[in-house]
Amino acid sequence: MIITKSKSIDILNNLSYWAVLMVAMMGAAVTTLMPLMVGAFTDSQLFSTQQVGFLTASDVAGILIASTSAYFWVRKCHWQKLVSLSLVIFIIANVATTWVNDFYLLIAVRFVAGLACGISYSIALAALGDRKSPDKAFGDMVTIQVIYGTVGFAVLPYFIKIWGFSGVFQFFNITLIIALILTLITYPSNNKQQTNVNLTSNIHWLSASLVFSGVVFYYFAQGTIWAYLERIGVAAGLSISEIGTILGIGFAISAIGSWLSGWSVERIGRPAAIWLTVIVQLPCLLALFYMKPSNALLIYGFATIIYQIFWSYIVPIMMGIFNDVDDSGRLIVFCIAAFKVGLVIGPPVAALIISIYSLNHVIGLGAIAIVVSAIFLVQADKSVR
User: Fold this and answer.
1) Which of 67, 159, 186, 293 is within CB 3.0–4.6 Å of 336 for a Cys-Cys bond?
2) Cβ neighbours for 13, distance < 8 A, ≥ 6 positions apart
3) Residue 21 — pLDDT band, cuts 50, 70, 90?
């Protein structure tokens, strides 16, 4: 069989695209599987409740710093070399995590892992934005992240049962190695090289501030509710395997949300779609608030699955607003930063609330944050039009 030059180029382009998707998939891995990470750290009995909150936030803090700074460097660097290096550091940090039990050293290791993750994730997001059909590319990204989360929730409880919290990071490394191999073979070039960055060009700063704040509040809610969703289930009497199965099913089904998002926005508009998310998610949280051991399996299943569907539903809307406030192709990396700001603040705050009050108070705080987020997002969408 003779492979023509054009055929070889097509193969390389496909491999390059898959390399980007795999890197983007791993960029969201910590966020996606955060409930199981929190549970694994807690069940190790090596760390206090407050320490678990800070451990969870340390990864996200590294991602936050890397993604925030990416606005200045993402269009100046050699993408393939920097992504390859960051993946190697990410893998090494995960290996080191399996050897470390000291809290402060583990914080430092996870922070480095977060920095490496944030660098590769930011470049992947910029590469997806450069494609001819960026909306489709972002949709593919969400889909592969959903698939990874589904697999993770299905198998990680067994990994954790055997290896403890080390099992989470061994699971990460399996896919990180695949991403690294693909990246070393081929990766997209930076086609929008910039030597100087004009901070004021083509950016609607009021809209940018509003959407950034809206995303931060929404992901603060996820840093409180989502991060402790596994603990909420355990407190209601569910087993780790039951929780993992339910969250895995919910994550798989959540792709429905991202598929319906664009379709519904065309018909009812962004503001209505944002408030629809609030109207659906708040009753889910109310159900979790009043959940009892006698009805836990049913309530936890329905509430978390519907909640996840509408989480996937609103994310493309947030990214759409972000995309509208800047024509330079750089500000999109701040979307990652906004995600991570909320996720950095959320777990330590949730841990503090749990230590003083209860898990139910965390649910209530998350509900308030979702409402505040909707107010900011709606105002951002109005100001950009």
Assistant:
1) 67
2) none
3) very high
Q: Which residue has the higher pLDDT, 14 or 202?
A: 14
Question: CA geometry: angle at 144 spanning 38 and 187, to 5°?
Answer: 110
Residue pair 271/321 in contact (Cβ under 8 Å)? The answer is: no
How many residues are given for the chain? 385
DSSP-assigned letter for residue 161 = H
Residue 202 tokens read as: 């083509």
* Torsion sign, CA atoms 152, 155, 157, 161: negative
- The phi and psi torsions of 21 (rounded to 5 degrees) equal -65, -40
Dist. CA 304–CA 35, nearest whole Å: 12
Which residues make Cβ contacts (< 8 Å) with residue 55, sequence separation at least 6?
41, 47, 103, 106, 107, 110
* Secondary element (H or E) of residue 318: helix 296-324
Distance separating alpha carbons of residues 327 and 314, to the nearest angstrom: 22
User: What local confidence, expressed as pLDDT, does residue 9 receive?
Assistant: 65
Reduced to 3 states, what is the DSSP secondary structure of residue 203?
A: strand
Task: Identify the burial level of 1 via C-beta atoms within 10 angstroms of its C-beta, where 0-12 means exposed, 13-18 middle and 19 or more buried.
Answer: exposed
Map residue 176 onto helix, strand or coil.
helix
DSSP letter string over 21-51? HHHHHHHTHHHHTHHHHHHHHHHTTSS-HHH
Q: What is the mean pLDDT of the chain?
A: 86
How confident is the model at residue 1, as a pLDDT?
Answer: 44
DSSP state of 326: B
For residues 187 and 184, give the distance between their C-alpha atoms in angstroms, rounded to a whole number. Answer: 7
Q: In the numeric block, which tokens belong to residue 168?
A: 């989470």
Q: Which residue has the tokens 């501030």?
A: 209
Q: Rounded to a whole number, what is the largest CA-CA distance in the chain?
A: 69
CA distances from 349 to 143, 148, 342 (A): 30, 28, 11
Helix residue ranges per DSSP H, 164-293:
166-185, 205-221, 229-235, 240-253, 255-268, 270-289
